[in-house]
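Researcher: I've got a protein sequence and the SMILES for zinc ion. Could you write out the 3D structure of the bound complex as structure tokens? I'd like something to compare against our soaking experiments later this week.
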Amino acid sequence: MCSSMGAQILFVAIDGHPVYVCPMCEVAWPTPQRQFIVDSADTIDDLAPNGVRLPSDAEIDAVRASGVQLAEVAVDWAEFVVDLLSDGCEVQTP
Ligand SMILES: [Zn+2]
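Model: Sure. Here is the predicted complex with zinc ion in place.
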């Protein structure tokens, strides 16, 4: 697990639940983690064995409505997202 934990990228498991991923070490969580406080450390495959996809606008709105603060993916993370989705995971676009 990396020491620069900060940004977590929101994906959605194929079966519909959110998966938050640290782009530095690819550890995944079912809920967003507070910086430097980690209660679990699973892999994307652990939480989404059938793969992940990008969230739809409605799913993003629902996550925001639950109180989670989201920002659009910075350009720095875009390459990670494309690599992750095109490499080891099943990909579906909303
Ligand atoms: Zn990390």
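Model: The chain has one domain: 9-92. Helices lie at 44-47, 57-65, 75-86.
Researcher: Great, I'll pass this along to the crystallography team.
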